[in-house]
Amino acid sequence: QSALTQPASVSGSPGQSITISCSGTSSDVGGGSYVSWYQQHPGKAPRLLIYDVTKRPSGVSNRFSGSKSGNTASLTISGLQAEDEADYFCCSYVGSSTFNYVFGTGTKVTVL
Amino acid sequence: QVQLVESGGGVVQPGGSLRLSCAASGFTFSSYGMHWVRQAPGKGLEWVSFIHYDGSNTYYADSVKGRFTISRDNSKDTLYLQMNSLRPEDTAVYYCAKRPSSASYSFDPWGQGALVTVSS
């Protein structure tokens, strides 16, 4: 199972909106509704931002939103803030005949 | 609040063994499935293994199948990862993570991680 493809870096100014893409195949991203997104600050553990493509856990800002079209999922951060500077990873469950997860390559978000 | 604390990391020679532990608190450990996920230095995340809430079923990534064993002791609220025949490419921070519910395919929350270094 190959890693999902994300842009290496995305940047934006405070207050702007940015979108991070996560490209997979019909066997992973396109094959179900189990895409999740994680934020990771340097030296820290990942933190769940979005699950089941569009759902946000309690405590996560509504500035973070998720979507999916075909084999590509996306994470949008609106009203970009300095604290959003971090690495972001997508993840897809790969089920049916197997039990497996595949993560994205990761995107470094820089707040200019 | 939910807390996961890994321990047992360290330096081991290629071919050696190590056992990681993950102590859970703040929730009913015996009711939730648990994962191990790893991250090589400066690299992305890789799912390693999952165990059902009662230990009845376990799953592994192809990269560790036959070498790693996940287990749990619900009486001690502790998750384990026994790692044998370690290779340099197993060097990573290993995180334990909770499966939020039986219908969930995400990881939340995560522990702080335990560093495993495989080197001669």
Molecular structure report:
Helices cover 0% and strands 45% of the residues of chain A. Chain A has strands spanning 9-12, 18-23, 35-40, 47-50, 64-69, 72-77, 86-94, 100-103, 107-111. In chain A, the strands form two sheets. In chain A, strands 1, 3, 4, 7, 8 and 9 form a six-stranded mixed sheet that branches. Chain B is 0% helix and 47% strand. Chain B has a six-stranded mixed sheet with strand order 2-10-9-4-5-6, with no helix packed on it. The mean pLDDT of chain B is 97. Classes of the chains: A mainly beta (112), B mainly beta (120). The interface between A and B is medium-sized, with 23 and 20 residues.
In short:
Chain A is mainly β.
List keywords for this structure.
heterodimer; A: 112 residues; mainly beta; six-stranded mixed sheet; three-stranded antiparallel sheet; 0% helix; globular; B: 120 residues; four-stranded antiparallel sheet; 47% strand
